[in-house]
Amino acid sequence: MKNKAHYFKALKQSKGRINEIDLGEQIGLEEEETRKILVMLLSENKIKYERQGICSYSPMKHKKA
Prior knowledge:
The protein has helices spanning 2-14, 20-26, 31-43, and strands at residues 47-52, 55-59. Helix 1 packs across helix 3 and helix 2 crosses helix 3. The protein is an alpha+beta fold. A two-stranded antiparallel ribbon has the order 1-2. It is globular and about 30 Å long.
């Protein structure tokens, strides 16, 4: 899903400075689509719920093998 990858990249770059819904709107996503992407990213363990600045989600840090 192109929007998911684009949103994930934007989320990492925002570093918690932008609300997750506002971030989606900035890249042209509707609130419902943004929420669906957040659910997918959570289920893939790419993000976690964590208050970091204004945003409630942050990218997971994975250990390199």
